[in-house]
């Protein structure tokens, strides 16, 4: 441990840190400029409601984790009130024409683009994400409302050739009813619209419980939904503290008026919610954790692979579910990849407050998250990995971008999701060996590989046990593509033409007694 700490201190002395003390804009100025969007009360049935208590939202990028707002701490009563409001609103919303529902979603998306800067600042200050990425998240988030505004009109049923002359077979698609969402802090806006766009397009109504760390983005979305003309009760937000999450979650997963639960977060929490949803046999979507492999084969363009690795690993300081976690590099390009990736990390990564324009790496969301990454690094070093960059904390929840060589599959960082800026690199000899390591995980969300061999590209894309594959590409999310995992990464799909199906059931109508 001491040796590791000394080594870490030496490595950290070369890491560039910017803006920890000299942010370009402070929260007070943002709160004033974006006042109509900075909401701190629950949004239920089109009204802003207080709860009996409140909880603090902090800026994880500030040295002392400064409190930026106090938000209504909803409990089971408020959650039930929101479910009841959503249930009432469903009766009307399902009968609004698909064309009108689409128009409302489109207006909501436009409003998001119009308020892009303010929404991005809110994301940056509550999650620590660098401003450039927060702006990207707002566009990504709005893209789901836009995409599903068009999909609303494409919810077609079927008329199926009947086996009898006197019968017609119709398959109708109908909205399931009230959908509850429980969402994480790492994409505090997009993880809500990716669900809400599909649900509202289908004719469902919604209750959202956002993460304790990032309720402000969810409430800003509620404000814009109201301005866009989403009727009262159709989109409700009940923020709550971590302490109250289980009791609020229980209402959202067990109330008989809730037809569907859609969750994004860790696999461990997903399993708890799935069990609760089972009692009333709800429809479920689970977008859970990942542990993405990133494979570089001999034939790869190493410069391109390094570019992809930088994008895939360091977005949101490594806190994305599709983030590359396990880097597998074939022997002949192993040394070149390590050297080039290390150089790119030195050149491109700057730690700092997300509000500082040069920052590319913000803090991790909290101390627990930073402890986890440092624990994985220490475990790897104690088992023989080589530290090439970074390796430790830089005060509060900042973790230095870290590069480890000579990693082996038994190390902790290869067995559990990191959710931080750590690149562990394993050397492999054959394609079979790489696939065996890649597929050894219990989760299967995303996977990436770099190769110039067309036969290998087809083989590996098909063989990887994941829901999404990046081939010579490190970033793959888009509203048009499907998002979802296999194995313990979840159930169901978001985005794409399939996303809306998660909020529909198919009703078979058999029309008989027809004259032949
Ligand atoms: P988390 O701890 O599972 O929390 C996610 C949400 O669940 C938060 O709103 C949290 O509330 C709530 N929650 C936790 N325990 C609960 C309970 N017993 N009942 C009801 N709600 C409960 O996950 P996280 O650490 O925030 O997010 C990181 C994880 O999410 C990673 O594993 C990542 O891979 C995954 N993720 C997956 C996707 C995907 O699309 N597949 C996307 C993003 C993230 P509190 O905030 O109050 O704890």
What does this structure look like?
The chain is α/β, with parallel strands linked by helices and 516 residues long. The protein contains 16 helices and 24 strands. The chain has helices spanning 2-12, 27-33, 76-93, 98-114, 116-127, 131-151, 190-202, 215-228, 245-254, 267-278, 302-314, 331-348, 367-382, 412-415, 431-438, 454-463; strands spanning 17-18, 42-44, 47-49, 53-58, 67-73, 158-160, 168-175, 178-182, 205-209, 235-237, 258-264, 283-287, 292-296, 324-330, 351-352, 386-389, 402-405, 422-428, 443-444, 446-450, 468-471, 486-487, 490-491, 504-511. Helix 3 (76-93) runs parallel beside helix 9 (245-254), helix 4 (98-114) packs antiparallel against helix 6 and helix 6 (131-151) packs parallel to helix 7 (190-202). The model is unreliable at 1-22 (pLDDT under 50). It binds NADP nicotinamide-adenine-dinucleotide phosphate. Residues 182-187, 191, 209, 211-213, 242, 245-246, 249, 264-266, 269, 272, 287-290, 321, 417, 419, 445, 485, 490 line the site of NADP nicotinamide-adenine-dinucleotide phosphate (NAP).
